[in-house]
Amino acid sequence: MLEVGDPAPTVTARNQHGETVSLDFDDPTVLYFYPKNFTGGCTIEANGFQAALPEFREVGVGVYGVSMEDTESHAEFADEEGIIFDLLADPDGDLADAFGLDTDDGHTDRRTFVLADGEVVSVYDPELADPSGHAREVLRETRNEFVRGG
Asked: How far apart are CA 114 and CA 112, in angstroms?
């Protein structure tokens, strides 16, 4: 798995709208991997990032969710939950592999990466915490990292 200080891979995937999204992680970005749409913890986590999205954007940080499900599942999930940030489809596990995550069970574990300037800045294991507070924790620490004097 990628660790703090490792170079970030450049990735390309389709979002819930079927649009191709390419990320080089030069700009501050939160990329969170989650196992499955419409499940309890994943829904709580997605809603947390959605609720905090204006604050992430205020400090110039992009937010992207990734799971191994297809664009149609992401579209349904985003529509039902009111998610407006990009959910990236990774059905073959290419993004997960690029970040060193296990895909043997057809899904990835929950893992959140903060990336900037082409490298990994932070890695979180939300499995160890309450998913309802995860987005706020990432926001707080990201704000401290990227907002000087704020």
From this structure: 7
